[in-house]
Design a protein that fits this description.
alpha/beta, Rossmann fold, five-stranded parallel beta sheet, globular
Amino acid sequence: MKKNIVITIERQYGSGGRTVGKMLAEELGIHYYDKELVRLASDDSGISEELFTECDERLRNQGFNMLRKEIYHGQLIPPGSPDFVSPENLFNYQAKAIKDLAKGDSCIIIGRAADYVLQDFDNVVSVFVHAPHWFLMQEAAKKNSLSDKELEKFIAREDKFRSSYYEHYTGRKWFDANNYELCLDCSKLGFDKCVEAIKAYCRVRFGEDVFD
């Protein structure tokens, strides 16, 4: 690729956003980062990966209602502080890992409010992948052996976590199209055409030869 491009993807659970990201990364021959961000943040901070994972699970189960909103401004809390392993600082280190990646080679980054973290980078394309309820149910059922009622609750829980996580650290609404350059309905396009749509947008923005 002629230009270092970072594509961030936020997505509803079951929309196929992760699949689209993987397919795009493979087609372009660039790195794909999802859960690997935790490992990178752990390596940089010295905080165990388990603490990052446990924090996510705790917030997923308990919600953000009891936490004061902590909009990310780029700071890190130093070792020795009682807040060094707070949810906010765990996010800060993941954000640092995201910024470090954006300064390197082209890549795809899934979730973690990466579009907000990288809002001042001119090489970033932000994407939101969504789909109607029937499609989310159809795709989620491929990975979860649950009744329809249980599956609906599961999807709602996952999307509530993603929405709350995003708003807590950005001050923005997760579903607001104003936050993203490109919003794609996977039920209308399918995975392959979503990949093509992102590539087409990159060509319009960065030049026809961007992937040469």
